[in-house]
Amino acid sequence: MSKQQNPFSVIMVLILIQVLFGVNFPASKVIVGKMDPILWSNLRFFIAGLAMLFFTILMRRPHPRVDKNFLFPVAILSILGMALGQGLFLIGLRFTTAINSAILITCIPVLTLVIVVLRRQEDLSFNKLIGFTMSFLGVVLMRDVSSFKIGNATLWGDLLVFSAATCFAMYLSFGKKFFMKYDNMWSTTWMFFISALAMSIFNVNKFGQLSDVVYGPVFLYCASFSIFGATLLTYFLNNWALKRAPSGNVAIFIYLQPVVAGIIGYVFLKEVITMRVIICSLLILTGLLFSISKK
């Protein structure tokens, strides 16, 4: 963790990000049941961009100098972390199974660790290696791995989902230096708009579908949370954390998402928490503590 920042506050922010993402899963199910997933991602990035722009101007944040040193990296990060990261995942879901996508997307922290070590951003300490391994096993074993199958029927979808995971891992690695240099609010604003613009190319013929959507109260509640809670706030906080913590530490907190989902399912949906879920959750949490602990 950064020496200038209280590690506890960074950890709390990283946990909050995963809670927001965890709550977003059921909210997104409601939304994509009524709207094309890629069209919805396009729309939420654009609205989140407008909201972030409003708050950024309201707070009178100084705008970074608009030159190639700013525009080129922010465009690349926008494509990697939002447009491709979201787009490839959503398209991949159409061509693979839910269990395949769930397991493949858990490669994000591992891929991030590989990239930051290869780029010599971080050292591969014994604690980090053990921690990542434990957390990865905890997430994988929490799933019904017997249903995980790689074959011709799902190969295209599996490759797209894995590519999405790789894009987000690259975003976590390459984004750290950028967010340490530039204002977080303006950077996040630009990322939302660039991503929305990039995704709109594939949605030109779909915008007319918005008039066919039934915007009931439940849909509007879920859409509001997804935009402001699980998009605007999560990406802003994620970029804030990248500035203050190693990319590997930011990535491994993603493994908290199934733990959060299990708690939400138990509290709100009356789902049963099995002994398998409890053991896997403890494995994830132990691995997380190992990975962020000092050498």
Which helices and strands, and how do they pair?
Elements: H1 7-32, H2 37-58, H3 68-93, H4 98-105, H5 107-118, H6 126-142, H7 155-181, H8 184-200, H9 217-244, H10 247-252, H11 257-268, H12 275-292
Helix pairs in contact: 1-9, 1-11, 2-3, 2-8, 2-9, 3-7, 3-8, 4-7, 5-7, 6-12, 7-9
Describe the protein in words.
By secondary structure, this protein is mostly helical. It has one domain (7-292). The chain has twelve helices and no strands. It has helices at residues 7-32, 37-58, 68-93, 98-105, 107-118, 126-142, 155-181, 184-200, 217-244, 247-252, 257-268, 275-292. It is globular, with a radius of gyration of 19 Å.
The gist of it:
With 295 residues, the protein is mainly alpha-helical.
User: Main sheet, how many strands, which sense, barrel?
Assistant: none
Calculate the terminal CA-CA distance, rounded to whole Å: 12 Å
What gross morphology would you assign?
Answer: globular
For the secondary structure, the number of strands is 0
Count of helical segments?
12
Report the uncertain regions.
Answer: none
Q: What is the chain-wise order of helices and strands?
A: HHHHHHHHHHHH
Q: What is the share of helical residues?
A: over 70%
